[in-house]
Amino acid sequence: MPADSPRPAAATYDPGYKLLFSHAQVVEDLLRGFVAEDWVAELDFSTLEKVAASYVSDDLREREDDVVWRLRHRGEWLYVYLLLEFQSSVDPWMALRIMVYTGLPYQDLIKTGEIGGKQRLPAVFPLVLYNGRRRWTAAREVSELIEPLPASLKPYHPEQRYFLLEEAALSETDLPDTDNTVAAIIRLEGSRAPADVRRAVSLLQKRLQGPQFQIS
Hints:
There is one protein chain. The chain is of the alpha/beta class. Helices cover 30% and strands 19% of the residues. Helix 3 links the parallel strand 5 and strand 6. The longest helix has 18 residues.
């Protein structure tokens, strides 16, 4: 496929991606292999559990395609919000979308009574996995979308940043070893030569045959 060719329709990728990221091992591989931040080492991956992610926004449209997991960080829950982007074009309003979407789980926790009035809301780590060919140029912070404010108004300025994993920006040296499932997926999507495709498929198949991916 030429470098500037658009990806196939999102529907081609959505079911497979959702299934892959419904495995705790894939989420662990994603965080360990691609989020180079100190707090990741403090996560208790044995507590990973998938959260039902069907939220209704104010315009009454349900969001059922997002993948939400939670796990313990220093004894407290941390929610990992995975937004899987399959579009070939860049969404300039992604930071705003992230701010809205991460508010939906909070509303749900309050509505269901899981968070009481005296409790604090859990931390949320929003991650955008983008597999489009075009480079990502959208703002990563919602405040960048707002007109500059006088210093006295900045305390009222919303702030929300998301972590971007842009597949097209990664080189082979950026990818973890072959035991990382997410790295194997990225290698497969980036393969062009038939031999590279066969090798990437073989590595991914071998990884997915592990007991952690078997359905009990």
